[in-house]
Amino acid sequence: MTKIAFIGAGSTVFMKNIVGDALHRPALSGATIALMDIDTKRLEESALVARKMVASLGSSAKVETYTHQRAALDGADFVIAAFQIGGYKPCTITDFEVPKAYGLRQTIADTLGVGGIMRGLRTVPHLWKIAEDMAAVCPGALLLQYVNPMAINTWALSARFPALKQVGLCHSVQGTAAELARDLNIPESDLRYRAAGINHMAFFLNFEARNADGTYRDLYPALRDGYRAGRIPLDSSWNPRCPNLVRYEAMMHLGYFVTESSEHFAEYVPWFIKEGRPDLLEQFRIPLDEYPKRCEEQIARWAAQAESYRTAERIEVAQSHEYAATIMNAVVTGEPAVIYGNVANRGFLPQLPEGAAVEVPCLVDANGIQPTVVTGIPPQLVALMRTNLNVQELTVAALLEENRDHVYHAAMLDPHTAAELDLRQIHALVDDLIAAHDAWLPDWLRARKAA
Length: 451
Prior knowledge:
By secondary structure, this protein is α/β, with parallel strands linked by helices. It has helices at 12-23, 40-57, 69-73, 87-100, 113-137, 150-160, 172-184, 220-229, 245-254, 262-265, 278-283, 290-311, 324-333, 379-401, 405-413, 415-420, 423-437, 443-447; strands at residues 3-7, 32-36, 62-66, 78-81, 142-145, 165-168, 191-198, 201-210, 216-218, 257-258, 337-344, 357-365, 368-371.
């Protein structure tokens, strides 16, 4: 019987999507689902939802709960990681409020920038603990890693545990494709595309739609013409605060459309968020402090939703667009599938550094995750990716070498941070963030004095 271990299962809404997707697959519907979290209240809420989904679908799946990680992992075939070290309070708030005192504003702060760096420093040590436990009790299991900062995490995991079977998963590629199809009023099923790069900064190298005669047409002219004419982008159906103006504007200058949202992309580059330039924020509708707002909204939504789940006899189990169940089904049944995954670069993107975390098309079947090679990425896109890779590489180096100096170096080379602050300000900001996060950080980082 297949065993699926879910680390961070107190994230009930995300757990519901992933477990619900698995229950829809006949090959997974009888799995043992081991839910693990350190928050016992949230864990029990998730277990209640999972068991009601099992009952609603008439599945034979078994739901177990654990507060001890290694026990949950014991004998697992698949491990799903979806946790946040330090949570929204206090750590996410700290990642926004401390930089704000220096005049450095952010939108999401979970992938790059000083917020992403600090989240990586908090998160990677626990991912390494998961890898250690997996080596001890489920060495053949596949880790499906949904934790941000995705690229830093994937790079650090593969560097320390090269034998670990892992893939970093995000929904930005398929999610963006759906948004663009909506902008162009084209059925998503008619799309054909190829994307590659790094997580949150991959680009659609080809983006096409099927014609009635079975041939395909390039959609980039329609995207450019629609943006120039003001017909697109349409307001985002899921986040009306931030339509895709940033990404369309970047496309007009770079020639290609990036796969992560405008609120994310705005803080990965030095062009859109600038002190003293509120006109840019207004023109491109960039929502500063977006992630804290989103967290508060989700908390309020969950309070009402949790009560409805507690009293409901049945729970509707809709299928999501996440990749996890597709991957698990392909591995168990051998039925091939293609996904976009984040993996260590072993020549898959020859234009980017070996070992870096890259996002490429992957074939999945009984042999596991098999990344494909993508060549010919335009040089301006490679150059832009490298500005983000610099930050990721130095953060990973800080963790591997236990070198506090590299934390400063990573922040110094972050495009948005460097565009706003001078070197002494960046050094002081890093010191303040380390002091504010305190016990959430690894001991070597807190114990060593700044140079």
